[in-house]
Amino acid sequence: MSVFEGLQYQEPDEFNDIRKKLSEDSNCRKIDVSAGVYRDENGKPYLLKAISQAEDILHDAKRDHDYNFCLGIPEFLNAAATIALGEKLVKEKKVASCQTIGGTGACHLGATLLSSFCNFRKFYIGTPAWPNYFPLIKQAGGEVIKYNYYNSEKKEVDFTSILNALESAPRNSIFILQLCCHNPTGTDLSQEQWDILTSKMKQKEIVPFVDGAYQGLASGDLEKDALPIQNMISKDMEFLFCQSFSKSLGLYGERVGCLHVVTSDAKKAEIVADSLRFIFRSECSSAPAFGALLTSSISKNPNLRAQWKEDLEGISHRLQQVRRDVHYFLTEKYKTPGNWDHVLTQKGLFWFSGLTREQSKTLIDNLHVYLPLNGRVNVAGLNKKNTEEFCTLIDYVVRNVN
Ligand SMILES: Cc1ncc(COP(=O)(O)O)c(C=O)c1O
Q: What is the number of the ligand 1 atom nearest to the C-alpha of 178?
């Protein structure tokens, strides 16, 4: 009898399976619009110029490889908090920050803090959502309550449904909201909608849990994308912000993230930081240094900051150009049945195309186009060489598959 007798297979990971199929497909014209990663005009992973320059500086500095503090590298924490929340709040010391293993680690740490240490367990999640929230909240001891985030007919945020969920939520519930470039719908709350929601949350004593995995990719401007955060700060709200530098600095594999807990005063921030230290010590002891040092060295160097700004603007402009190209081919050149305006209005990496499961499946199984079955397209996988072909294949499935 084995210790592992009772183990059952867990829910498969769709992206793992797509990745496997993709690697087994030898067709040189295959198109990958699946995972949420940025690709350059040549379809390759993109090394930001700011990162490349920071790597040179770090290499010359000949650093050691000692352990870091449980909460993280102090200069990284300061840089990360300033990027997310602004200088004023950081100076007031109303924030407890802990370096994490990417944005996923920040979400998990935040959920653990609320659920196991503060006894706040009800997590409201608008669907469709980033699929990892569900197991992550469950493992942290939370309970998930779903509501509808997206109106697929109108291709816009289902604001009535969000307000209804908020209305019915008991005090001390938690609302997970994505800051921008919503995964998977590419459809974000407007500033007015944020303002209404945050006022209601404050009034009802509901905790905002904001996931900022794509800060900087919506507008190309880190501060502009973080306006909803400033809205909550202006209302003196307590909230959590889960930060990731995977997308905004292209540091996917380096696992650079940070959890920021904004509290009503400096004394509370101190005790929250102590709890974060305690949790992180038992889970990971301390987070990896390399990507965090790159991030802080960019943040403190005005030239590298300017380069990062340029890099982000370049990414954001390319994504918008791809969206315009897709729109042109589908509407003007191929006159594909349907309305495709949402490819222009949605933001960031994702276009929630509205293709059916069968249409997506046909693209994967027969046409060498790889995407999740919910029809989410990562537009960064498209470029001048493959966009037209991609659109002809979309046109084909729209006309021939239900
Ligand atoms: C909405 C959302 N949140 C969090 C993350 C986690 O990011 P990271 O790769 O930094 O763990 C992702 C990654 O794709 C995401 O899409």
A: 1
Q: Which amino acid is at 194?
A: W
Would you state the pLDDT for residue 62?
Answer: 83
Nearest CA to ligand 1 atom 7: 103
Confidence of residue 131 (pLDDT cuts 50, 70, 90): very high
**Strand ranges of the sheet holding 174-178, from the earlier edge strand across to the other edge:** 95-101, 256-262, 239-244, 207-212, 174-178, 122-127, 143-148
Q: How far is the CA of 272 from the centre of ligand 1 (A)?
A: 23
Q: Which domain holds residue 244?
A: 67-300
Return phi, psi of residue 272, to 5°. Answer: -65, -45
pLDDT in tens, 284-297: 999 999 999 999 99
Same domain, 324 and 293: no
pLDDT, tens digit, 9 for 90 and up, residues 44-91: 999 999 999 999 999 988 889 999 999 999 999 999 999 999 999 999
Q: Which residues line ligand 1 (CB under 6 A)?
A: 36, 102-104, 130, 178, 183, 211, 213, 244, 246, 257
Which residues fall within 8 angstroms of residue 101, CB to CB, at 6 or more apart?
255, 257, 284, 287, 288
Residue 295 and residue 204 share a domain: yes
Q: Give the residue whose CA is nearest to atom 15 of ligand 1.
A: 213
Does one domain contain both 216 and 84? Answer: yes
Q: Are residues 238 and 387 in the same domain?
A: no
Closest Cα to atom 2, ligand 1: which residue? 213
Angle between helices 302-327 and 49-60 (to 10 degrees): 150
CB 243 within 8 Å of CB 215: yes
Confidence of residue 337 (pLDDT cuts 50, 70, 90): very high
CA 243 to ligand 1 centroid distance, Å: 9
Check pLDDT > 90 for residue 2. yes
What torsion do the CA atoms of 27, 31, 32, 37 make, to the nearest 10 degrees? 130
Q: Are residues 221 and 323 in the same domain?
A: no
